[in-house]
Amino acid sequence: MAETRVDLLHLLEDLRDAYPGAIEETILTEIIANSLDSGADRIRLAADPPSASIAIMDNGSGMPRRDLRRYHDLAASTKSRGQGIGFAGVGIKLALLACKEVVTETRRGKVHVATSWHLASRHRAPWKWVAPPGLVAERGTAVRLHLADSLSPLTDRGFVEAAIRRHYQPLLDPACEEILSPHYPRGIVFEVNGGTLRREACAAAETAPIAIRTGRKRKPSAAGYLFREPVALSEDRRGIAISTYGKIIKRGWDWPGVSPNAPDRIGGLIEVPPLAASLTLNKGDFIRTGARGAAYLAFRKAIQEAVVRQLAAWGDSREQPEAARPRTLRTLERDLERVLLELSDGFPLLASLVEHRRDGQKRLPLGPKSPAGDREGLGPGISELPSVLAEDEVREIPPGQPEAAPAQPPAERSGADMAAPGGERRQRRPARLGLAVQFEDRPGDPELGRLVESTVFINRAHPAWQRAAASRSEGYHIALSVAMALAPLAVEPAAEHAFITAFLSRWGEAVSGAPSRRRKS
Hints:
The protein is α+β, with helices and mostly antiparallel strands. Helix content is about 25%, strand content about 20%. Helix 10 (about 475-490) crosses helix 11.
C-alpha cells in the first residue's frame, strides 16, 4: 500500500504567496492574532538584533498539552470560524520558511511545556519537547523565532511598531473602543522592547462618525469614522480601511466601490466584527459566495450608503454617472433589480444586491438558529444581514422601546436633506447601490460574466457575446450572464441550474410586462 506524501516546502511557499504583504508582516500579524483569540489583553514583543530573534509573549489562556501537540500539524486549529481572527491554523506555520528554529512555550494551570520546531527538508518539519525557556510567567503562550536572516526586519523595533499600528490600528484607536469592548473588555496593550504603544485618536482636520446597525438593533454592528484633510494624505492613509476584531483586512477606495472628488484627501476606518466569519483563508479578503459572501456584500452596501451620505454632507461626492450610462443599460439594470427583488423571497441571499429603501426593510432568514444563537454556523453577529442601516434609520424603531433613538447628527444627514443655496431644501438623487452591470474584455476566459462585489462584468471578448451582438440579442445574453454569475452566491452548486431557470423565467416576465407574483402593498 502506498501513501500520500506532501512536499511541505512547496506547500508553505504556496501559502506564503497567497498572503498579501511581506512574509515578515504576515508572521507577526498571525502570531498576534493567535494571542488575541486566546483572550490575551497584554502582548509583549522583544526584538533582539544581536541574536537575530524576536519573542512574542501574551497572557492569554495558554494551551493544554494536547493542543500544543496539534499546533504542529499543518492546517490544524481548535478555533471556529467567526469567533476570532484566526481559524485555519496555517499562518504561524509560515515562520518555518523564515526561521532556523521556532520555540513555543505555553502555560495553563499546572501545565507548563515547550517545543522546538524547524524545517529540516522539503518533506520534514520535526519538532520535539524541550524545557520551557521561562518566557511565560503565570499563564499564556510565547513564541520565540530564531530568524535565518540576521538582517530580518523582525529584529527592528521600528518595523515591529509600524506593522502593529498598520494592521491593528482599531485596537489603538479610541474611536473603535465601544464596538470592540464586547470582544476585548479589558482592552489590548502592546509592549515593544519594554515600551507601551500609545493609543492615538485620529487627529485629522475634519472627522465624522459612522455607525451601522443590523435590522432594528440599537447597538451598532459596525462603527468607525471618515476623516478629511486639506492636503493630500500619504498612500497608506487614503481610502477606507475595513477591519474585523481589530485587524485591518482591506484598505483603499476600490473595495467600497465609491470615491469622492478628492480621494487623496479623505480616509476612514470602519470596524465590523461580524465579518470575521466571512474571511478567506489568508484573511486578506472576504468570501464572495454563499451565506458568508452575502453577509459581506450586505455590510459592504450598508457601508457604501453611510459613506456616500457623509460625502454628500461634505459636498465631496461625485455626480452620479447614471445620465452618462446608455438608456438601454439603465433600463436593463432596473429589470434585473426587479428580478432580484422577486427572487429574494425564495433566494434570500440575493437581497444583499437589492437596493433597499426606507419603506422596504427586510429581515433575511439564513436558516435555523443553533443553540448558541447563530445561524448555520456563521458565528455570532451574522444571524441577520444589514438592511437600511444608518444612524437616521434608528428613528423607525417601533414604539415600546425603552428610550427614544437619538437625533441624527448633522454629519449623518442624507443627500436628500442637504440645503441648497438660499436655505431652500433641494432633492439630491441618491447613489445607486444595487446590482450594476459593466463590460470588459477578457480574451480566452470561458466565463460569460463574473461577479465582483455588487457588479457583474460581462465579457465582450467571449464568442457568445459577439454572436449575441450580431443577432441583436444582447439583452438575453446579459441576463444569462448575470444569472450564471449570481448562481454561486445564491445557491449550492447542485441547485445552480434551477436558480438560472427561475432567474430567466422572472426576467422574461419583467421584460414582457407580465404581472408580478409578489403581493403588492
